[in-house]
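HUMAN: I'm a chemist; might I ask for a sequence paired with its structure tokens?

ASSISTANT:
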Amino acid sequence: MTSALGFFVTIEGIEGSGKSALANALQHRLTSSCSRVLVTREPGGTAIGDVVRRILLDCKEVSDRAELLLFEAARAQHIEEIIKPALGRGDLVICDRYIDSTIAYQGYGRGIDFAIIERVNNFATKCMMPNLTILLDLPVQVGLARQTKVDRISAQGLEFHESVRRGYLDLAEADPERFVIINAARSFEEVLDEAAEIIATKAKVKL
């Protein structure tokens, strides 16, 4: 289910791919073209989400199942409080991470059953899918080298992050209508220009 009024963009990628920086830059780039551009993130975006984010990133002992359910709890609140109302207003919503992160990290990375992830993703989001997903792809070692702060998840080993990257690429291959892959190993300006052009084309707005 997608909104009939707004346009929902998600940005995905491994650690160090530049998702947050791109989301913020896109807001500045696209605001002149769209009357309302909302940038948000997962986990976060709400008071509940921010608390969950701190638990997920800072607490050392979080089981795989608890991790999945915490992400989904934050997502359910995020949908109801932020994303759904913004789309209903006709906003262009840009979200840093969404359901594909859960499949890549908790499915491919942690090894949780994909059918379980699909069910809880659908429950948390009421099956709300993005209109467009931009996947920032680059080699894992390049992304990890860009990290300025290490948290519980980014501190996982190389094999874990390679599995996450493989998961993202599998998801993009399986859904080429929704996904666009951008080479994030290039300069930030090149990535920004390409992402802005893609969104403008898909959302039918002029830059």
Summary: The first helix runs from residue 19 to 31.
